[in-house]
Design goal:
Length: 326
Amino acid sequence: MKMLIAFFCNLLLFGAARGQNDTNKDHGASGSVVSSAAVANCKRCIVLAEQSQTRIAIAEVSTQTIIWEWKAAGHVKDSAHIKWFSNPSDAKVVYNGRYVLMCASGGGVALIRIADQKTVFYAYAGGNTHSAELLPDGNIVSASSTGHFLTLFTVDTLRFPDGVYSKQVPIDFGHNVVWDRKNDLLWSAAGKAMKSFIYNGNCTRPDLILKDSIPLPGKEAHDLFPVYGENAFWFTNTTNVYRFDVSTKTLQQADVVQTSIKSVSNGPREFPVILSKPKESWWTDEVIDATGKRVFYGQGLKIYKARWVVPNPFSYPKKHRFNTCQ
């Protein structure tokens, strides 16, 4: 009897230990081991919109390895929705490093929990979706380039993707959206104009009201992302990279590699500015710094955009907890 009791005790202990390990590791759809603990402990990680394997990936710079990934296959409700996530076009880590907000040229927008790769919300915007952003109430807005519109979604984690409210707002060549927490504005560099919008704050019927439109140089505005620690944006078009000062609403050419830059990101002082500059068509297998020096490389990768996994105080509060429309 004592031996039998000991056997069951050991079995329970083994099961508990295994359960603890499983909270940190998950076998993704590709069969690779994905470690949320490694992401949480990573000192210098980059989140990638990576198109060779149609995934969002998080790469550790020190080891030059991908330590986390998400693919739509196995993580959306209907296999017919997988095509929405073809050619991932943007990704940013949100909610204090616990979630990834992504979108894809196939039209999909998704919010993913890093710990278990769970897709807690997704929906279809269409029109070659290129960027997505969180609004203060937890709703999501995206930008679509060939569709020439922004799309606002009421985030409902129970009724998605078909049972959620959405609203389109026309905009030229929609490629980017950034929330400005200090000024309560949504910014989007659209074609030849930097536009700011007031969010109506209506959780169930979200909408935007145009506030300002500021002329921009060049054509085909592309990336827009906060400069870490400053009241400014990185802004790119086909020919240049600029800093846009939000207070003065003025542009200054940035001291970085220019021409055809798909994304720009920086972090605290010890983090270099990183850029994604295509080698073929619109993708690259490396992430470079402001001078063109390699920061990360992956053979065979097709990286469209790359961003540091760091807090974003320009857009989100210090304690940014997961939020849904209520």
